[in-house]
Request: fold
Amino acid sequence: MAEILKGNAVTAAINDRTASAVEELKARGVSPTLCIVRVGERPDDLSYENGAVKRAVAVGVEVVKRAFPVDVSEDELIQAINEINTDCSIHGVLMFKPLPKHIYEARVCNALSPEKDMDGITDLSMAGVYAQKPLGYSPCTAQAVIELLDYYGIDLTGKNVTVIGRSLVIGKPVSMMLIKKNATVTVCHTKTRYLPAVCRRADILVAAAGKAGMVNSDFVHEGQTVIDVGINWSEEKQKIVGDVDFDSVSPIVSAITPVPGGVGGVTTSVLMSHVVEAAKKYAD
Ligand code: NAD
Reply:
């Protein structure tokens, strides 16, 4: 049976570091503050927001919310972001996406100052991930994958890592971050041929496709580490499931993250660590 790479141990370690940094900053008169920008009331956003607020309270980060109706205009949203950019009491911003269709999302995202972009939504943050420069912040989920691998001491040097998914939120940035850690990375997507065979070749498989249970026993081999980033609602099981069919894969591989209880919770801890980093840069 595989080792279960639980997220809560990783989360606890990150939270400890974050909470200590918050104390130090507060002693210097700076209270790290996250602003959550939400348009509409999508259940997924509200659920993530609740989780983020709980995590913030746990580590001492302050949260302010800017919620807008779903018919907010692009100009109004950009004006709010401009205000946030110049508000010294706010150190970081989390803005939920996708934005409604009448809004040109890239324009709104890039209105945000990269130094307050806690989840890598600006082009400059993404350039930083690719150029390995601190131009903004990396997407929290992509970084959560790296934090989890680091925490469990999984060395990436020279390892073959296959990533399923090429989104700007996870697949692409995590691939860049894995390369930085000296892994040899293969990125798969909907047009990849012989996907199970490509995945079987990997030492470490990162699944971020958003397809419930698509990674089955054909995709894996003994000794593999499987990181499941997927968060999918299964109508059949009436619960949240990952991209990996845990029941058929876990008896074969050597280590695997559960869903829920794996990468998901680490994401909000990474978010808080970004806020503290931004507040520290401000304080310095
Ligand atoms: P996305 O839809 O933007 O991208 C999915 C990617 O997977 C695409 O690049 C697509 O080419 C690829 N893909 C889809 N089906 C495939 C298939 N059958 N074969 C091969 N490749 C396939 O999704 P995303 O935003 O990158 O999110 C991916 C998953 O991660 C979702 O389940 C999402 O809910 C989850 N997620 C988790 C967290 C977290 O905190 N753990 C955060 C964000 C997203």
The first helix runs from residue 7 to 27. The pocket of nicotinamide-adenine-dinucleotide is lined by residues 141, 164-167, 169-171, 188-190, 192, 195, 208-211, 214, 229-232, 263-264, 267 (CB under 6 Å). The radius of gyration is 19 Å.
